[in-house]
Amino acid sequence: MGYDCYAILQAQIPNAAIGQAVLDVLEADENWGVFPVSEVGDDHLYFQWEGRNRDEESVYALLEPVALRHAITFEVEYSSDYDSGLRFFVGVDAQRLNTLHQLDQVMDALQNLLSPPQQRIAVLKAWPRRVDLETLLNALHQLLAEAGETSS
After folding, report:
1. 3-state SS track over 71-95
2. Does residue 152 sit in helix, strand or coil?
3. φ, ψ (nearest 5 deg) of residue 85
4. What is the rounded (10 degree) CA torsion for 98, 101, 103, 104?
5. Which residues contact 10 (CB under 8 A, 6 or more apart)?
6. pLDDT by residue (tens digit) across 14-39?
7. CA distance 92 to 68
């Protein structure tokens, strides 16, 4: 049976020639299929993808070699029948940008948690994506622990 999935991919590029080369490589890869919308500008690349049975990890795995080869970073907005509103980065600056994005999510969640009224705490405890917050907090804890080890 399977599931539908959608992605919007963007990247800052040094020039249109590199953007077109990246798009050509991705369009030639049978794992991607057709991009119903694509745009290559002087300094940006944008395209949309629709497919079946691709989770965010497989999208990441398909994009990473292309991003690294062309020294760019993709910003990916991903959704499927099972996930919605996921945003992540793939490429040369992915680790930094993913960490910043996760920190933004943690700060938003903490700000909502700590702001009055107290009913928000009950909402957060009942939040269906609470596990995502716990994952973000664990990632932040690990990142801070690793940063502490590096600075020692």
Report:
1. CCEEEEEEEECCCCCEEEEEECCHH
2. coil
3. 70, 25
4. 180
5. 44, 45, 46, 74, 75
6. 999 999 999 999 988 888 877 889 99
7. 6
If DSSP codes are grouped into helix, strand and coil, which group holds residue 38? Answer: strand
> In this structure, are residues 9 and 47 in contact, taking their beta carbons and an 8 Å threshold?
yes
Q: How far apart are the first and last CA of the chain?
A: 52
The per-residue b/e assignment along 26-57, b for 16 or more CB within 10 angstroms, e otherwise, is: beeeeebeebeebebeeeebbbebebeebebe
Local confidence band at 120 (pLDDT 50, 70, 90 cut-offs): low
Is residue 51 within 8 A of residue 32, CB to CB? The reply is yes
DSSP 36: S
Query: Would you tell me the crossing angle of helices 119-126 and 94-114 to the nearest 10 degrees?
Result: 130
pTM: 0.71
Query: Of the given ranges (27-36, 57-66, 111-120), which has the lowest mean pLDDT?
Result: 111-120
Which uninterrupted H or E stretch holds 99? helix 94-114
